[in-house]
């Protein structure tokens, strides 16, 4: 995914591997909002009755998730994986946006001194609908 930091002192518009935190490119002490973006096409060879699931394993700290400018939901550090069927929202060309917010006052337990970011995998899963 392509992250873009939003802060008066920090910004970045480049590719980074996921999962990862933003420590290497924004610094370990950065607190603020970062937008991750990814464009992808319609999965090939989809068959009738198959579901397409978007799965985000883990974020640090709070995330809002949107596909093609439609909000899909939110998740926080410590939540179970975010999982939603996006099959009926897919287009020929798709734009996934994950905005992660790490406010300075956030209490993150053992991760308090760690950078924020998309710290778990992000993937599509294709499966037969029940």
Task: Write the CATH fold name.
Answer: Jelly Rolls
- What is the radius of gyration computed over CA atoms, rounded to a whole number of angstroms? 15 Å
Put simply, the count of helices is 1
Multimer state: single chain
Beta strands, count:
10
Summarize the amount of helix as a percent range: under 10%
Please describe the biggest sheet, giving its number of strands, its sense, and whether it closes into a barrel.
5 strands, antiparallel
N-to-C order of helices and strands? EEHEEEEEEEE
What best-fitting shape do the alpha-carbon axes yield? elongated
Strand content: over 45%
Q: Could you say how many structural domains there are in total?
A: 1
Helix-strand makeup class? mainly beta
Please give the order of strands in the largest beta sheet.
1-3-8-5-6
Outline the structure in words.
The protein is mainly beta and 130 residues long. It has a single domain (2-40, 47-106, 113-128), classed as Jelly Rolls. The protein is 3% helix and 46% strand. The chain is built from one helix and ten strands, in the order E-E-H-E-E-E-E-E-E-E-E. The protein has a five-stranded antiparallel beta sheet, with no helix packed on it. It has a three-stranded antiparallel beta sheet with strand order 7-4-10, with no helix packed on it. A two-stranded antiparallel ribbon has the order 2-9. Strand 5 and strand 6 (70-76) form a beta hairpin. The longest helix is centred in the first third of the chain and has 4 residues, at 23-26. It starts with a strand and ends with a strand. Mean pLDDT is 88; it is low at 5-11.
């Amino acid at each position: 995914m392509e992250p873009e930091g939003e802060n008066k002192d920090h910004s970045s518009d480049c590719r980074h591997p996921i999962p990862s935190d933003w420590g290497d490119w924004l610094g370990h002490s950065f607190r603020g909002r970062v937008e991750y973006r990814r464009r992808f096409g319609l999965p090939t060879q989809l068959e009738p009755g198959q579901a397409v699931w978007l799965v985000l394993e883990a974020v640090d700290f709070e995330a809002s998730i949107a596909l093609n400018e439609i909000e899909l939901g939110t998740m926080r550090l410590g939540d179970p994986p975010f999982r939603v069927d996006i099959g009926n929202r897919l287009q020929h060309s798709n734009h996934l946006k994950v905005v992660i917010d790490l406010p300075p006052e956030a209490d993150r337990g053992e991760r308090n001194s760690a950078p924020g970011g998309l710290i778990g995998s992000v993937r599509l899963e294709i499966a037969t609908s029940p």
